[in-house]
Design a protein that fits this description.
The complex is a heterotrimer.
Chain A lengths: L1 E10 L3 E11 L4 E5 L6 H8 L7 E6 L2 E2 L5 H6 L1 E4 L11 H11 L4 H14 L16 H13 L5 E5 L7 H18 L2 E6 L2 H7 L2 E6 L3 E6 L1 H6 L4 H7 L3 H4 L18 E2 L5 H7 L4 E5 L5 E6 L12 E2 L4 E3 L4 H10 L4 E5 L5 E6 H17 L3
Parallel strand pairs in A: 3-8, 3-9, 6-7, 7-8, 11-12, 15-16
Antiparallel strand pairs in A: 1-2, 1-4, 4-5, 9-10, 12-13, 13-14, 16-17
Helix pairs in contact in A: 3-4, 3-5, 4-5, 12-13
Chain B lengths: L2 H41 L2 H16 L2 H12 L6 H25 L3 H10 L3 H34 L9 H10 L2 H29 L10
Helix pairs in contact in B: 1-2, 1-4, 1-6, 1-8, 2-4, 3-4, 4-6, 5-6, 6-8, 7-8
Chain C lengths: L1 H5 L10 H33 L3 H13 L2 H12 L7 H28 L3 H9 L4 H34 L9 H9 L3 H29 L2 H4 L3
The chains are: A alpha/beta, B mainly alpha, C mainly alpha.
The structure holds adenosine-5'-diphosphate and magnesium ion.
The site of magnesium ion has 2 residues of chain A, from α1.
Protein name (chain A): ATP-binding cassette domain-containing protein
GO molecular function (chain A): ATP binding; ATP hydrolysis activity
Family (chain A): Belongs to the ABC transporter superfamily.
Chain lengths: 371, 216, 223
């Protein structure tokens, strides 16, 4: 647990970067600081490991005030990850990772062993072990940065825009991997981002700060979407709030009834397809019954080939949130959303009216539990 | 400090000063004129780069007095000929400036070059209209180093008898007389500051687009 | 000149080539040692704290414009009478060598430390490294390439100026040039010049090798 107790920071007595911040980042949870640029996120984060000294107020780790601790000892208890990784360019990847373990007194060979294990946990093959940072892509460097913070097995982690400097595709991968990792390790984490989508996707708890360093709202992502505290928060979360709320757990496994869907395989003749078809569109699967795409019966001239398939439909994995299910419906040319099992096999299709009913049921259920 | 001596010798000192000025400036000017095309070649990577910059580094390694002494062997001049000093200092200036010019051209942002290409500049006009002007700050910085260190190296030529302010040092030692030595040092420093300021001023005039002029 | 080199009496004895090379190396080594002793800490301090940047830049510029020959002669006349025997010219010469070698070492070290990726230093602080550990584990090793280039210029400057100092009786290969000039023996002068040039190239090469051995391939990007 990391506690901010009326913490303020003034620069040169003038700029107020953080203003009387009080909040708690609960043990084992990922707390996200989010807000517009310059709202004091980085300053707040760096006051935790005292890279910046608070002007007033206290920060406590598990109830223990940090201002009386030896500053190096305090920092060694806390993993620290920054935007551009900040790897040591003169050290190899494993040497970089082993640094924090060594700082905490782990013997050298044990630290290197830990480093090798961590390399795999963050999704890098052991081929990277003896490379130097310049030989790594930005995303790979960031993974090493995370591994380095984890090598001392700290209870707490601070992460400042860890995924901001990489392209959107890599960012998505890193986020997913990090969520998986955090599910295993359950660290008490404060992460800073300016990206509200990242905050909603990753956070157990989201702290919205406004310019001037004041607290706007502390809430779970669902609460934030459903009940923004004021105009500023509502604005900051942006459009599509109602749609994005479908992405959360309470809308999962919505119990949308699955319909059976007739399927064809590649090579089928137009006559066969017309016999199967219930309307213009027939779902095409591979021999393992995994969906490949939709075939348009009306425009088919000869036997069904790869190039005839319409690939616009997204697939929703069984049990995923209503957001994915709805998207599968909306993107499908036939209007029927394809639901697949864990290994990609076809389970059936759903229709818009069934999804709408499920959304309505979930919404009223949620409203019903509102105090 | 014997000012009466200075006054009596002022004519000769002025003459030595002019010699010093010429020996400091001419080699740098020739060196720059040669360095521009060579640096341009070196910047275009590959074989030229490693060979030219390697040769330049090697030349720069040779101590000045050694070069003064060895050049008569190469040039067929006599040991007292001021030509030896001019050539030696040109070699130093060239060695330093080839690298500087190549670094300067390297410092031109690739976006700018691409934009110039897209507008239809051919290679040579692009060099003169776009690349060289933008390389001025880096080249000027190298030129300042070349000029200032040249003023100091010129005085070494006194040991082989070439006329310039360095003769005040050898004379001072022979006579155990401080006045010419101090006068020589002061004039050298003044000359260096003057030439340095000149390069700085010229560079500022040539780069009105730079915040704060040529200093980076 | 080949005749000069093939005369064995020119090589041995107290004023033979071997003895002169050793002398040249000793004076240069001593000067380099003191220059490092002064230049490295100042460069590290300024680079680490960012304080005094303008001061050392100005100092380096001013020292570069001082004529080395004038300085040597001045110090010999001023301090010569203070010391007994050979020290009368050795001490002033070494002082000038040090004075000329400090600026490149100082500037190289400063520039090297200042150029270290701030993110790496921030990460080092954030993980709980103490200031001296940051200096010696992160900043110094990352600054090595530029420190070595400063060291290189300083060494060449020293070897070159030590040659000139033969004019005030300092030992070393400069003797061959100065004495050759006095005796009107051009071949001796040329031999001295060749030897000084060769010495400079060899020392430069040695520093290059040393830097290859000590600078991490993570910085040189060479594998
Ligand atoms: N060292 C500093 N000196 C003065 N002002 C600063 C300093 N660091 C940050 N600030 C100011 O404090 C405010 C908060 O900065 P920061 O915490 O970095 O914002 P964020 O990380 O949310 O973008 C900004 O207005 C910024 O300009
Ligand atoms: Mg920030």
């Amino acid at each position: 647990m990391i506690t901010f107790d009326t913490v303020s920071k003034h620069y040169r007595g003038q700029t107020v970067a953080v203003d009387k911040l009080s909040l708690t980042a609960p043990t084992g949870k990922l707390t996200i600081f989010v807000g517009p640029s310059g709202c004091g996120k980085t300053t707040s984060l760096r006051m935790v490991n005292r890279l910046i000294a608070p002007s007033s107020g206290r920060i406590l780790l598990d109830g223990e005030p940090t201002d009386t601790m030896d500053v190096a000892v305090l920092r060694r208890k806390i993993g620290y990850v920054i935007q551009n990784a900040g790897l040591f360019p003169h050290r190899t990847v494993v040497q970089n990772i082993a640094t924090t373990a060594r700082l905490n007194g782990t013997p050298k060979d044990q630290a290197l062993r830990i480093a090798h294990d961590l390399l795999e946990r963050v999704g890098l093959s052991s081929a990277f072990a003896n490379r130097y940072p310049w030989q790594l892509s930005g995303g790979q460097q960031q993974r090493v940065g995370v591994a380095r913070a984890l090598a001392s097995d700290p209870k707490f982690m601070l992460m400042d825009e860890p995924f901001s400097a990489v392209d959107p595709v890599v960012r998505g991968q890193l986020q997913d991997e990090f969520l998986r990792l955090q599910r295993d390790i359950g660290k008490t984490i404060i992460m800073v981002t300016h990206d509200i989508d990242e905050a909603l996707k990753l956070g157990d708890q989201v702290v919205v700060l406004r310019t001037g360093g004041t607290l706007a709202q502390v809430a779970t992502p669902q609460e934030l979407l459903a009940r923004p505290a004021d105009d500023f928060v509502a604005d900051f979360i942006g459009r599509d709030r109602g749609y994005r709320v479908l992405g959360f757990a309470e809308f999962a496994k919505g119990g949308v009834p699955l319909g059976a869907e007739p399927t064809a395989t590649l090579g089928a003749t137009p006559e066969t397809l017309r016999q199967i078809a219930t309307d213009r569109w027939v779902l095409v699967t591979d021999p393992l019954n995994r969906p490949l795409g939709w075939a348009d019966v009306d425009s088919l001239k000869g036997p069904l080939r790869d190039g005839d398939l319409n690939l616009s439909g997204t697939l929703a994995v069984e049990g995923s949130s209503l957001r994915h299910v709805l998207d599968a419906v909306l993107s499908s040319p036939s209007g029927r959303g394809v639901i697949v099992g864990q290994s990609g096999e076809l389970m059936g299709t759903v229709t818009l009216s069934h999804v709408a009913e499920a959304i309505e049921a979930a919404r009223t259920g949620r409203l019903g539990t509102q105090p | 400090m014997r000012f009466d001596w200075l006054y009596r010798e002022s004519g000769r000192i002025a003459e030595l000063f002019l010699w010093h000025l010429g020996l400091s400036v001419i080699p740098v000017v020739i060196g720059l004129l040669l360095a521009l095309p060579l640096g341009w070649l070196a910047q275009r990577a590959g074989f030229f780069r490693s060979t030219l910059l390697g040769a330049a580094g090697l030349l720069y390694t040779i101590p000045s007095l050694a070069l003064f002494v060895l050049l008569p062997l190469v040039l067929g001049t006599r040991i007292l000929d001021p030509m030896n000093v001019v050539v030696a200092l040109t070699v130093y200036a060239l060695a330093l400036l080839v690298r500087t010019v190549s670094d300067g051209l390297e410092s031109v942002p690739p976006d700018v070059i691409q934009a110039a290409n897209a507008m239809g500049y051919r290679r040579l006009p692009r060099l003169f209209v776009v690349e060289l002007p933008l390389a001025v700050p880096v080249i000027a910085a190298g030129l300042r180093v070349a000029v200032v260190s040249n003023v100091s190296i010129v005085s070494v030529a006194a040991l082989i008898g070439t006329p310039q302010l360095g003769l005040l040092f050898t004379q001072g030692l022979q006579l155990r007389f401080l006045t010419p030595i101090i006068a020589g040092i002061v004039l050298c420093v003044l000359l260096a500051a003057l030439l340095d300021g000149l390069v700085l001023f010229a560079a500022k005039r040539m780069t009105p687009w730079q915040p704060g002029g040529a200093e980076r | 000149m080949i005749a000069w080199f093939s005369d064995p009496t020119h090589w041995t004895g107290s004023d033979g080539v071997f003895a002169l090379v050793i002398q040249h190396l000793i004076y240069s080594g001593v000067a380099l040692f003191f220059a490092c002793l002064i230049g490295l800490p100042i460069g590290l301090y300024v680079g680490h704290t960012g304080r005094g940047v303008v001061l050392i830049a100005g100092l380096a510029n001013a020292l570069r414009s001082l004529p080395s020959l004038g300085l040597i002669v001045l110090l010999v006349i001023l301090f010569g009478p203070v010391f007994a025997s050979d020290m009368a010219f050795i001490v002033p010469s070494i002082i000038v060598l040090v004075l000329l070698a400090v600026p490149p070492i100082m500037s190289g070290t400063y520039a090297g430390v200042a150029a270290v990726d701030p993110a790496a230093v921030d990460a080092a602080r954030g993980m709980g490294k103490r200031p001296l550990d940051i200096l010696f584990d992160v900043e110094l090793p990352c600054a090595l390439p530029l420190i070595f280039s400063g060291l290189r210029s300083a060494t060449l400057q020293i070897i070159s100026t030590a040659t000139i100092a033969a004019y005030v009786s300092l030992g070393g290969l400069g003797r061959l040039i100065i004495d050759g000039r006095a005796q009107n023996d051009y071949y001796q002068m040329a031999a001295g010049a060749v030897l000084v040039g060769a010495l400079a190239l060899l020392v430069d090469l040695a520093i290059g090798i040393l830097s290859r051995l000590t600078v991490s391939p993570g910085l040189t990007r060479r594998l």
